[in-house]
Amino acid sequence: LWTTPQTGLQASINSPTPDYAKIAADAAKLQALFTEAEGQFSKMKMTEAAGFAKTAAEAAGATAKEAKGGKLADAKASAGAIGQCKACHAKFRESDGAGGFKLKMQ
User: Fold this and answer.
1) Can you tell me the distance from the alpha carbon of 31 to that of 29, in angstroms, rounded to the nearest whole number?
2) Taking a C-beta distance cutoff of 8 angstroms, is the pair 63, 23 a contact?
3) Could you point out which of 42, 53, 67, 72 has its C-alpha 20 to 30 Å from the C-alpha of 26?
4) Which of 48, 1, 54 is nearest to 30 (CA)?
5) Residue 99: C-alpha distances to residues 7, 31, 62, 90 (Å)
């Protein structure tokens, strides 16, 4: 079963025995991915998509920081701000006709 860093983070953060190092690592990976996405969207002049990515990167960074400090409640609160995936994907991606997706230019 393949999971995204986001689903891995949610599973880790909601575990009855949370692994703070794994939460921090998953959040840091998301931060890197969203930072990369922000850069690509900015190059393409997709300001709104870049904004979604920037907000998610900041939230992921805060989640990693809180997890490293052992502050689970704060990490959960920060992680909640990462989950704008569907709003961005609904607006900025479309079917590629082959079972995958492609970027929907605005």
Assistant:
1) 5
2) yes
3) 42
4) 54
5) 21, 27, 34, 16
48, 68 contact by CB (below 8 A): no
Tokens of 23: 């939460």
- Strand locations in the chain (E): 93-95, 101-103
Q: What is the pTM of this model?
A: 0.85
Provide the 10 A C-beta neighbour count for residue 7: 12
- Token output for 61: 């960074």
Burial 68-78 (b: 16+ CB within 10 A, else e): beeeeeebbeb
Quote the longest CA-to-CA distance of the chain: 45
With beta carbons less than 8 A apart as the criterion, state whether 53 and 87 touch. Answer: no
Among residues 52, 44, 55, the alpha carbon closest in space to that of 88 is found at 52
